[in-house]
Amino acid sequence: MSADARQSGGLRVGVDALNLLHDRRGIGRYARAVLHAWLTDERHRVDVTLLVPQLFPGLIARRLAAECGVPSVKVRRRSRARHLDLDVVWHPWNGIFFESGCRDVAVIHDVWPFVHAAGRTTPAAQRRQEPFRVAARRATRILTDSQFSRTEIERHLGVDESRIDVVPLGVDKSLLSLRAAPARIDGVPRYVLFVGETEGRKDLATLIRAMAHLTAEVRGHTALVIAGRRASSATIPSGVHVEFAGEVDDDRLASFYCGAAAFVFPSRYEGFGLPVLEAMAFGVPVIASDAASIPEAAGDAAEYFPAGDAEACARAIERVLGDPGLAASMRTRGRARATNMSWERCADATLAALHRAAEL
User: Fold this and answer.
1) Which site in 126, 172, 224, 317 is 20 to 30 Å from 74, CA atoms measured?
2) Cα 9 to chain centroid, rounded
């Protein structure tokens, strides 16, 4: 432990860090943001050791530090975790993937592998579910992003609610003042934006059908931009303008947010719905389904429609695009919500949960 951390009684936290190098999803963004806060703002309260499987962990220390946005980090082999005098090991990647020999705190963002296709019993499904089951058995405490996911963890994994802490995700405060050059789409004066992988539960099909339900005038002036890995094919109705941007870096994503007339999130199942909060931070009016945890993330700052209802989604899009006063109000409410849900707040609440686990 560093001298500052030891003098202040800082918590000694090991972190499963392998996925930091390649996970570009919302989970990766979450892990990096929390670690950055701990290694900067909270460095007197917590002593962090990143745990990796590599035989020579020092060889990737610089890369891991860059992912955390700090000059340097302490990195050790995870097989040595039980010998490092750690108070707790934090597993942020949806379950537990290795045996630490320490008190474990696992993050379960959602239990989609148990919900999808009614929790198939195929070998592949069982492999996806195993880290969740290990966490349910071994974790001293489990963290999750929403009350919805807490209920789902109880239902599908049999974990008593007394072992589960709800810690909502956050957003980078710098996004509130970031002004990137707005993206432009050839052939139309405006676009609505979707961000995320095009897997089935995101229900992009409903959004594309909603674009077809827009009036001819609105549809002719409005494109749909999809930013994220294209995991499935989609049928595009005649007269609907869709731009598949694919995976984009943070600068390009900021450009898409800054140019969007609205952000639409039709997902049927989420543990939180981080893109909703990011859109609000950029001042984009948010239109979202009323499913799962999404109302917890968006609060009173979004315009909702019933999940899977393309016509209702289209009506919501037309209301927002056609009413400047409503759009302005949504921007104001969205920014206020994003301001109150920072990564710093998330990191502080996560650290408090780790303290509770260490004290049991």
Assistant:
1) 172
2) 31
